[in-house]
Structures are given as structure tokens and as C-alpha cells.
UniProtKB/TrEMBL annotation, chains A, B:
Superkingdom per UniProt: Bacteria
Keyword Zinc: yes
GO molecular function: deaminase activity; hydrolase activity, acting on carbon-nitrogen (but not peptide) bonds, in cyclic amidines; metal ion binding
One of the Pfam families matching this protein, by short name: Amidohydro_1
Transmembrane segments: none
Protein name according to UniProt: Hydrolase
Keyword line: Hydrolase, Metal-binding, Zinc
Length: 449, 449
């Protein structure tokens, strides 16, 4: 039953992306969305009769579930463009890890704030972050109003303290920021976290009901090196350490091999993969995430950008288009990964990948009110013969006009309401000389798959 | 010597992309650009002392040579999104060519106007168009102020009239619109124009001093079919018909084979290739334009979008980023096609590809004043560690704030000054039902490589 009191927000006149009971993508025209207490109360094509404290006239716009960045390192926007045109190992060892040795909590806060500004402007309402100084990132999430799935990263080189800190973070921040923050245990990867640590992590995950977010089989090299050194693939390492028995989000997986698929299939329902195809192209990796094979075994694939140090942006809209294009190209099949499939990855599959499949990812009554309004009046998105294709292949993240999380407007008509970008940029600019200094010769970690 | 009379336009406070005498990309900060009589009079970091009728304060912005779309079919924006997720032959035969049979001059005018609006908003100041009803496209170019290199396309199925019409168009519009229009002979492709017609075209090109713009070896299938049917590649057809002895712009060339390279090498200086990588991915073609091999033999490669019916946009900025990414990926070399190389393709090489290497493509005294101002204050383009990388991999076409052709401002602060987009969209919307009707069963041509 509808409440008689005014709703918090009403959006009228828009076309809404909806999912039917088979999860097929559809569109309802001239719809009204009513938001109350941070949730979607109704989506209707009947004339609006509800009063609301805020009203958005969204004629000419399309309402989509907010995009989810399923794997990033938000504070790394501070390193955007610092390590260009390099192979992966030089990128890590010669630039990224020496610079990350300099990171302070202040740098992380500034980076996270800039990243959230970029994501909100790009229509991202939730991001899964895997980084250091995550208390600071959590504070930024709290202050700017976005949703996040956070994990404090650790290496075995930190000793047991790394794992303990990751657990302590995950427990303390779970359901933080009024439910906008969820958490995960965040071992870095099988090549930087040993089997004993992974086994202990899996035990902790089960004991505390926590998911796990880690890098695994990022590329073919990692898979082949693991096979040569240990006789098993990184996915097989996840199996034997019990990680695959937890609710696990695997970042990248472009090195997933055919022999891994039965293991992932038996973990379907618990496992998801995040794909960030731009970086794989830029690093010239030989393969991309095997999205089609994962679809065939029921493993959801969410969209991601990775950090801006490799991806140069946190533009999930671009990840959506590139996933469609690169999947067509690598499978040799122009009929595969249609625009509607891309939108399914961007909505329900991405929500599931970050463990929020029952809360976000769809504009439907009862879901949290995380949504964006997209302007299709620009010449580059006209005419519209196929709205799904227009959204995936013609529209851009810059066409997002309004971004809403839990019913709160974080960007309205492209104006950010919760982050002062010029102030962040100015303060970050002062920090950069100290941040990028590599004279100390230290690295927080060595890349050696 | 500078004139004492006021200049037409002065742009102050910007960072300017410049080329040194080795064509290396550089940037001059806090520069002043003076424009007079449609040309760049000076670029200087000294304080401006010149008076001008118009002034743009471009602090925080970067001035780049306007982008050049080296191969498109502008009016096809009317078909944007109409034929999705199809193999090339179905796309042509079942949708595009039946719909093109319906095209009227009114449709072409509306499509061209919408396309020019999209391109001007995306920082494109010149486009090479290869289509039908080109008198209409020329009129749109005249009215909206953009620069264009135009050719009236023809098939041998039209008989000798096709070729004659293409010549008549090229001669009549050469140096039209106050020099903004240049022209080419425009046979469609070796698989739709027979050898006799190509030979006659080459003769006409030499006789009249006209360049040739055509599709050739678009994909590997075309090359292999040509070899199987005729024993020669499409590039070898261009050789034996004399087309390679003309000033020729080859669209796509993703099917160029190693055996073609010596032929193209001996035509270097006359030949250029336009690459539009997005469509190759979307059609799942097995190869992309061999940019590195073409660089090695001195053939310039310009950036392009093809038509929006395959590419879904006319976003040359995206073509620039995708060219960098796809070249890294397909060569397996992350060091190849750096951001500075991508900017070289986007500027000097694209200008050369459309035969305008001495007029545009560089911001330098004496060049025509075709340039764009790009805003890098957005969170997605901060901080700037490497300006070339920021431009290629972080900035987007939507960051272009101002577009100038021949010193005339066509877009200022993202407002289009010469095209009324809502009016064009409304009128085009009324035309669409008749345009997309395929009930007649006709095709203007059959795709059969």
C-alpha cells in the first residue's frame, strides 16, 4: 500500500530500462519513478498522483540502474598517465609500486575523492575497491554519498598482520554509511599471497560470512607461470585453498583456461568475475576475459575499469561498449554480446558480482534507488532506431545528466553536489611531487608471477 | 610582417599542441594564437599585443588542430542503430542497401546536417565523405562552415554514367565553399567497380589532377575472395588499373596483405589509408588496419569513423584512442603506438590522408585556422602527468568546448552556432518510416566480394 505522506523524489516523463521475469532488457516509455526512504517505491506508466518533496522532469531522458564499477583502485587516479606504454611488469615494478610506497592517507583521500567525482559524473553509483588505507576511502564514501564494496588489500609479505587488518577492516565497516558500504576480505592475488594465507582467508570468510575480492589469473602469463612453477593454474589455487567455496569476486580472469571452467562451474552462484577490457588492450595482453565461456557455466561477469593508472579513466560506460566490441572481435561472432546483453552485464550481472544482486542493478519496486538519467537529445545519439544500441554504442558517460544513490541526488544536470573538484585538484597538485618521487628505490611489493 | 589592423580572433592562455621540425608532438603553455583571414597568423608564448575583433580566454584548455574524419558516409547517421549485431554481408544486403534505395535528397540533407552537428561537437573540423547525392552534402558543408573532402560514389552497375557523374561533381565543387571543399573521384570499391572502370577513373584522375577515394581490401575476406576469383589482391587490382599512380585514399585496408606492401611502398607519397577500428571490432573482422607496417613503408594512416550505420557514432576522438589500444593489442607490443604517435595520426597524418597536408593538421603560422579547444578541468582528466596520454586516453570528444574552422567559431562552450539540432531531429523523425521501409525488396547494390 502506498503511503499518504509525500514521497522523497518523483521522476516523471522518462523512458525506463526494466528487466522482465526472464531478466530480458525492456524499456517503458513516459514512466514515473517514485522514490521513498532510499528505495524505489514504484515504476509506472500511469499518470503520477503521488506528491513528492523533490521532482525531476526527465522528458527526453532514459533512466538506467546506476553503473557498478566491479573492480577498481579508486585512489590510483592520482597516478593517471604516470606509467604509459609499458609492459605489465615494468609498469608495476618500475613505476606503480615504487610510487605507491609514498602514498599517505592524505593522498588516498584526495585520490578517492577525485575518483568518486569522476565516477558520479560517469553514472557510476557503486564501486568495488581493493586498495590500501581503506579507512580513508570509507570516509570519502560516507561523505560523498556513493555506494561501495570495500576491501583492505594485503600481501603475504606483510605477515599475518596483513590478513588480520583486512578482516578487522571488513568487520568494522560492514554495513557502514547507512548500508551503503559493504565489505570483503581482499588478498591481493595468488602470486603475492601464499596458499597458507589464502586458506586462512577462506576460513575467515566462512567464519564471518564475508565475501572475498582478489586478482586471479589476470592474464595468460600468470596462468602459464603458475602452471610451470606449481603445476596448477591460479584458479586451481583458489580451489585447493578453499577460496572458491566462498563468495568470491575474481578481478580480470583474462588468463582463465579451459581446465578452469569446471571448477568455476561448480562454484557458480558463489563466484563472479570483473572484466576491465581497456587495460588488457593497453598492456597488449594476448587474451581478454572469456565472457562467453563464463556465461555458459553461469558465472556472472561484471564491468570494471581497474585503476586509472592502467585504464586512464574510471569510465564504466566505456567498459560496457568495449566489452561488447572486444567480445565480438575475440569470438569472431558479430551476433554475440548484443547491446541488450551488454546492458545485462552492466546492470544485474554487475550488481551480483559485488554481492548486491538483491539490492541494486534493476529499477524495480523494493530496490535501492540507485539510478542515472541519460540525455539522448545530442546529435550523436539521434535518431534512435534501437534504444539498447543507442545506449551502448552511441551514448557516452558524459551523456549522464543526473546520478542518484539511495534516492539522494549526487549530480544534477552535470553539477556535482557533494564533491568540490577544483579544491581536490588543487590540493592533490601540491602533493604530486612527493608522491611521484622514486628516488628512494623502494617498492611495496615485487611483481613476479 | 604583422598587420596593424585588428586580427579576427585571438585565443589566449591556452596550452597548444605543436609539431617540431621533426614532426614530434610538443606542447607550449600559456600561448596566444592570432587568427586573421581564416589563417593562423602567429602562435606565441609572449604576451599578446595584437588587437582582435573576437577574443577567447582559453585558460585551462588545450588547443589542438581540429580532428579530421578521413572516411565517412555522413548522411548514414539516419541509419544509426538500424542494423545491429550482424555479419557484414547481412548488414549490407539485408538492411543498409535496401534502405539506401529509399534515400532522397531531403534525407541526405538532414543526415548530413545531423552528422556535421555531431562532428563539430566532437572536435572534427574536416571530413572525407564518400556517398550519394553529394551536391546536397556540399550545400550542407557550405551552410554549416565545416571543411570537407567530397566524392560522389559510384558502382559499375550504374554504367559509365556513374563515373561521369562522379567526375562532374568533383570538377564542379573543387575549391567550393571558399576553399573549404575539396573533391575526389569516388569509385565504391574493386568488388563493385570493374577493372575497366577503375582504369578509366585513374585516367580521369591524372587528366584532371583529381585524387581518388575508395574502399579497398576492407577486410581479410575481401582480399582472400579477390585472390581466389581473380588471382590478385584488391591492392594489386589498384596497381594494375593505375589507381595506385594517382593520389589515392584507401578506406580501411584491414585486409592488406604482406604481398601488398611493396606495391604500397612504391606508391608512398601518393597513397594514404584511413582506419576506422571500431567497426572492424563490431563486425568481428579478423584483422585491423596494419598501421605499423604502413608506417614502416611511409604510408600515412588517417583516423576515421566510417558511417554511423556501422560505427554508431562519428566520434574521431574515440577512433584515436581505439587505434592506440587496438594497435598495441594486435601487435602484442604495449610500447607501440604511444599517445604521441596517436596524436601524430590525428593531426599531420590525417591531414595528409585527405590531401590537405599543407593547409591543416598543425597549429602553425600560415596554416588554415581549423582548431579545437579542449577542457581538461574535469575530474576524469586530472591530474595531468603526461598531457599526450591525458588527451588520448582520458579525454573524450565531449571535452571539446570550442570548434573553429577557417577562423570561424562553429561551436562555443559546447553551443552549436550554425546548426539547429532539434529542428533537424524533428524533421528527420518524420522521414524515418519511409526511409527504413524495406517492403520494396530493392537494393542499390549487391555485396558479393
Amino acid at each position: 500500500m502506498m503511503s499518504d505522506s509525500p514521497a522523497d523524489l518523483i521522476i516523471t516523463g522518462c523512458t525506463v530500462l526494466v528487466h522482465d521475469d526472464q531478466e530480458r532488457i525492456g524499456f517503458e516509455e513516459n514512466a514515473t519513478i517514485v522514490v521513498r526512504d532510499g528505495a524505489i517505491e514504484s515504476v509506472s506508466t500511469a499518470p503520477a498522483t503521488v506528491e513528492a518533496r523533490q521532482h525531476i522532469d526527465a522528458r527526453g531522458q532514459v533512466a538506467l540502474p546506476g553503473l557498478v564499477n566491479c573492480h577498481t583502485h579508486a585512489p590510483m587516479v592520482a597516478l593517471r598517465g604516470l606509467a604509459e606504454d609499458l609492459p605489465t611488469e615494468e609498469w608495476f615494478n618500475d613505476v606503480v609500486w615504487p610510487v605507491e610506497s609514498n602514498l599517505t592517507a592524505t593522498d588516498v583521500a584526495l585520490g578517492a575523492r577525485l575518483a568518486c567525482a569522476e565516477m558520479i559524473r560517469g553514472g557510476v553509483t557503486c564501486f568495488a575497491d581493493h586498495y590500501f588505507s581503506m579507512d580513508t576511502v570509507a570516509a570519502v564514501v560516507e561523505e560523498c554519498g556513493i555506494r561501495a564494496h570495500l576491501g583492505e588489500a594485503y600481501f603475504s609479505s606483510q605477515g599475518p598482520q596483513g590478513r588480520e587488518k583486512s578482516l578487522e577492516f571488513a568487520l568494522r565497516h560492514r554495513d557502514g554509511a547507512g548500508g551503503r558500504i559493504t565489505t570483503a576480505l581482499a588478498p591481493h592475488a595468488p602470486y603475492t599471497v601464499d596458499d597458507a594465507d589464502l586458506t586462512a582467508t577462506a576460513d575467515l570468510a566462512r567464519e564471518h560470512g564475508l565475501p572475498v575480492h582478489l586478482h586471479a589469473s589476470e592474464n595468460r602469463d600468470q596462468a602459464e607461470t603458475s602452471l610451470a612453477r606449481h603445476g596448477v593454474t591460479p584458479i586451481e589455487v583458489l580451489r585447493r585453498t578453499g577460496i572458491l567455496d566462498t563468495d568470491v569476486l575474481i578481478a580480470h580472469g583474462s588468463g582463465i583456461l579451459d581446465r578452469d571452467l569446471p571448477l568455476l562451474a561448480s562454484a557458480a552462484g558463489l563466484t563472479a568475475v570483473a572484466t576491465a577490457p581497456r587495460g588488457y588492450l593497453k598492456f597488449a595482453w594476448p587474451t581478454t576475459t572469456p565472457v562467453r565461456a563464463l556465461r555458459d557455466i553461469g558465472v556472472p561477469v561484471g564491468l570494471a575499469t581497474d585503476g586509472a593508472a592502467s585504464n586512464n579513466s574510471l569510465d564504466v560506460w566505456e567498459s560496457m561498449a568495449l566489452t561488447a566490441l572486444i567480445q565480438k572481435s575475440t569470438t569472431g561472432d558479430p551476433r554475440w554480446l548484443t547491446s541488450r546483453q551488454a546492458l545485462h552485464h552492466a546492470t544485474l550481472q554487475s550488481a551480483r558480482a559485488v554481492g548486491l544482486g538483491d539490492r541494486i542493478g534493476s529499477i524495480a519496486p523494493g530496490r535501492r534507488a540507485d539510478l542515472v538519467l541519460v540525455d539522448l537529445t545530442g546529435p550523436h545519439t539521434q535518431p534512435v532506431h534501437d534504444l539498447a544500441a543507442t545506449l551502448v554504442h552511441s551514448a557516452r558517460s558524459s551523456d549522464v545528466r543526473t546520478t542518484i544513490v539511495e534516492g539522494r541526488i549526487l549530480m544534477r544536470d552535470r553539477e556535482l553536489l557533494t564533491i568540490d573538484v577544483p579544491a581536490v585538484v588543487a590540493e592533490l597538485g601540491e602533493r604530486l611531487p612527493a608522491l611521484v618521487d622514486r628516488g628512494h628505490g623502494k617498492r611495496i611489493q615485487e611483481y613476479d608471477t
